[in-house]
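Question thread 4412

I'm putting together a teaching handout and wanted feedback from people who do this every day. The idea is simple: show students a protein as raw sequence, then show them the structure tokens that encode its fold, then repeat with a second protein so they can compare. Below is the first pair exactly as I plan to print it.
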Amino acid sequence: MFDAWRERAEELEREVYALALAARDDRTPARAKAIVVLVVAYALSPVDPIPDFLPVVGYLDELLVLPLGVAAALRLTPNEVVRECRARADEDVDAGRARWVVAAVVLLTWLVGGALFLRAFVGWP
């Protein structure tokens, strides 16, 4: 049973990474890019709306929100782009590069979010 969950989690990780690659492709529509950015940021964010230490409920957001977001982004992204990005994601994950790219995306997302927050609420130029 746990092996099936682990396989599904690895598959979801590859899909999220492939979507992150698709967001940088010019052929991906703006709506799909927006959903991809939200899904990737949510998946990689250290801040969790429902803390994982709460039994069952803590993991409910990951079990529902991430797969739904991934499915929505995949529907909006052209099939050709998805195929190419999945192939690249498989290569990168197998080579170990995906984790560094994911870390950079998370860091960049938090830096941009922090700058926007400071600009909006503190008046920082």
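The second pair follows. I'd like the answer to focus on this one:
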Amino acid sequence: MSAAKRRDTEAEIGLRRQLHARGLRYRVAFPVPGQRRRTIDIAFTRQRVAVFVDGCFWHGCPDHGTTPRANNEWWATKLGANQARDRDTDRLLAAMDWVVVRVWEHEPVDEAAGRVEAAVR
């Protein structure tokens, strides 16, 4: 697990490049207000838009998410906790009037950038 990138994944960099090309400026790995160990992947602080680029495995994609066969119970608990933390982060940000946009890593970059741009503008 320590080899898994927390930021600057291929999907995240692709989305950031597309957003930058569209003239949008943002902050990277911005701390969730009041939660020192959680970060927003791409944050538009003035507009209060938080963008998370979720990996299919780690966040339980309904299309591509899998559960390893070895140590199945431990992984089910771990991946379930990740999803619960995602929901809690969404709730916390919504309570502070932030708009949350979640993007799956397999989504086409143009479509994801379009959704983010619509939320920002």
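Top answer:
Good format. For the second protein you could add a caption like this: The chain has a mean pLDDT of 94. Residues 9 and 104 are 12 Å apart (CA to CA).
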